[in-house]
Design a protein that fits this description.
alpha/beta, 9 helices, binds guanosine-5'-diphosphate-alpha-D-mannose, seven-stranded mixed beta sheet, about 375 residues, three-stranded parallel beta sheet
Length: about 375
């Protein structure tokens, strides 16, 4: 049997996603009309002998309850949300729920970051992992040398694909091959995490409390039971014939900012063309609005037939779009009302970012319309940026 674990983090981790995640926890923010976490979950369907899917995070349980029960019955695979009492780190969180994860005695455990957008080639990874015969296999991708430092950079053997060297977000360039945040492990990984945990405890006991605090502040380690998968596990295990890599040639993006959510929504809509064409809207301009390119419209949304929607638009539940409205490259959240020309500012529930708009980090855009190709470096509210 195989199980899958998706790390969904918690409120302190999602701060860069504001203002879009004020009401919705980031993992449930809609991309292509489906909650962000839905994309990795539905990719898990293709794993042979999948027994269970766990979501591990420190968001409130009630925020996930509805989604988890509906997706469990849809997939006919138990999907459970497990809440940490506090953040334990990407490996610590996994270890914290070891007994539950191991209850079906799985031979393999998939571990997925929820904030990545890709085609999740999970069965292919599992096949490669079995061939390599190691403890873990990482999904990796080549990115531009300039962007590589935002991720875990790694070096792999070109023939055996063994992970030879791993550095998390290095200051000086190591490699343009990076960690995608998608892994498959054998249960032995729990022993490794356990050992690191014990080392942390020993270190804590050796020091007086205050010097230990200084140490963990210096190493950015919040508490002694906090174990990071990248720095604490992958780096030391590299070059020991335990970890291997599987390179994807398909799309891959990280979803840390609101602007990235729009790009990833487009990537998933484009993927629907191949795997779920039924989810894409097709408009006729008579009973239904005119649809351009890839568009998702929730069945409960009311879009006026004279509206023109797309490309890259995702319209959530109960949205109302008035006559003559033109929507391009945007995500319209639940219950938003977009009124006709001249009036659309008044009751707009959501920001619309035009195509190729850049919203710089920490900039808050509320109830505004931003026309294409703008760079926003200051916060705006109730504004139309022309
Ligand atoms: N449950 C839980 N508890 N989840 C956590 C915790 C925790 O304490 N800490 C992080 N996570 C989740 C995040 O929500 C995210 O899905 C994933 O674990 C990784 O988050 P970070 O540890 O903050 O790392 P990152 O996203 O900056 O970078 C990681 O992913 C990149 C790919 O997107 C690294 O592994 C990079 O090497 C990698 O390139």
């Amino acid at each position: 049997k195989v199980v899958a674990v998706i790390m969904v983090g918690g409120p302190t981790k999602g701060t860069r996603f504001r203002p879009l995640s004020f009401n919705t926890p980031k993992p449930l923010f809609p991309l292509a009309g489906q909650p962000m976490v839905h994309h990795p979950i539905s990719a898990c369907k293709s794993i042979p002998n999948l027994a269970q899917i766990f979501l591990i995070g420190f968001h409130e349980e009630r925020e996930f309850a509805l989604y988890v029960s509906s997706i469990s019955s849809e997939l006919k695979i138990p999907v459970r949300y497990l809440k940490e009492d506090k953040p334990h780190g990407s490996a610590g969180g996994l270890h914290y729920f070891k007994d539950l994860i191991m209850e079906d005695n799985p031979s393999h455990i998939f571990l997925l970051n929820c904030d990545v957008c890709c085609s999740f080639p999970l069965p292919e990874m599992l096949d490669a992992h079995r061939r390599y015969g190691g403890m873990g296999t990482l999904l990796v991708i080549k990115v531009s040398a300039e962007s590589a430092s935002e991720f875990g950079e790694l070096v792999a053997d070109s023939v055996t694909k063994e992970l030879l060297h791993y550095t998390e977000k290095p200051e000086t360039f190591v490699s343009d091959l990076i960690n995608c945040g998608v892994y498959v492990f054998t249960p032995e990984i729990f022993n490794v995490i356990h050992d690191v945990h014990t080392q942390h405890e020993d270190r804590a006991n050796l020091h007086t409390l205050s010097s230990y605090d200084a140490l963990r502040l210096a190493t950015k380690t919040p508490t002694k039971d906090f174990v990071r998968l990248d720095q604490d596990i992958l780096s030391p295990l590299a070059g020991k014939k335990q970890l291997y890599t599987y390179e994807t040639m398909d799309f891959w993006e990280q979803i840390k900012t609101p602007a990235m959510s729009l790009k990833c929504s487009a990537l998933y809509l484009a993927q629907f063309r191949f795997n779920s064409p039924g989810l894409l809207a097709c408009g006729d301009g008579i009973k239904n609005p005119t649809v351009v390119g890839d568009v998702y419209i929730h069945p409960s949304a009311k879009v006026h037939p004279t509206a023109k929607i797309g490309p890259n638009v995702s319209i959530s539940a109960n949205v109302r779009v008035a006559a003559g409205v033109r929507l391009i490259s945007c995500i319209i959240l639940d219950d938003a009302e977009i009124q006709g020309e001249g009036d659309y500012k008044r009751k707009l529930g959501i920001t619309i970012l035009g195509e190729a708009v850049t919203v710089e980090d920490e900039v808050v855009v509320v109830n505004s319309i931003v026309l294409p190709n703008k760079v926003l470096n200051i916060s705006v509210q109730e504004e139309i940026i022309l």
